[in-house]
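Technical note accompanying the year-one report. For the benefit of new consortium partners, we illustrate the data format agreed upon in the data management plan: each record pairs a sequence with a structure-token string. No post-processing was applied to the example shown here.
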Amino acid sequence: MSDAPSSAAAPSTAASGILRLIPLPGLPEIEPGTDLAALIREAAGEAGVALAGNIVVICQKIVSKAEGRLVSLEGIEPGDEAREIAADHDRDPRQVQIVLDESRRIVRRGNGVLITETRHGFVCANAGVDLSNAPGEDVAILLPIDPDASARRLHEALSEPPAPTPVIVTDTFGRPWRDGLVDVALGSAGLAPIRDDRGSRDRAGRELLVTQPATADQLAAAAGLLMLKSAGIPVVVVEGFPFEGDGGVHQILRDSSTDLFR
């Protein structure tokens, strides 16, 4: 997986400063082995939406389904730790066991919530394990094994001349100190996931010392406005964003040695 800068060309509408968020409707239920890139190209063609030079934001759930990241609770035998946690928080011990299997460690638990650090390094509720919109009762959907690699494969499959098509894979996360969920980037390819403005100057001429906007997260949150669970819109095309560079979301995960809250 390469993080070398790319020669990505910005969309022609970038100079206007106007962004368009375009939902792609009509995607069928995704099953393991589904060719997501082919479905997205077909949906974009039917909607008259160009992919070249634009960014495709994809809900993690359909990526996980296509990659077969599905687990039936029926086949799970919970261990002692899972049973203890489940009893403390009135949870299904089988689901708790899946969360533990997907986690490096438990960061916090309380009020029926498990906050864990996933094997990818994400800190989130229940290691991203989700039963909503699953293909069957008592089926859990897991995060992709490597979301950056998933984004890379889709980026390469969707990119065609005259310009590449960056891809961002997203999921909804909660946040410390605030209620509500926000879509964030789990994986990215074809654009820099973070923009480094350090060393530049503000309008008053002061040097910026720490400013690094998380571009991939900002685009994920914007696209998330259209990705309602009840709407059946798992893919949004962002038109008009002047992307550059390349890289994966692993580049913007804060190291625990500099994290004051972990």
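Partners are asked to follow this layout when depositing records. The first strand starts at residue 20 and ends at 23.
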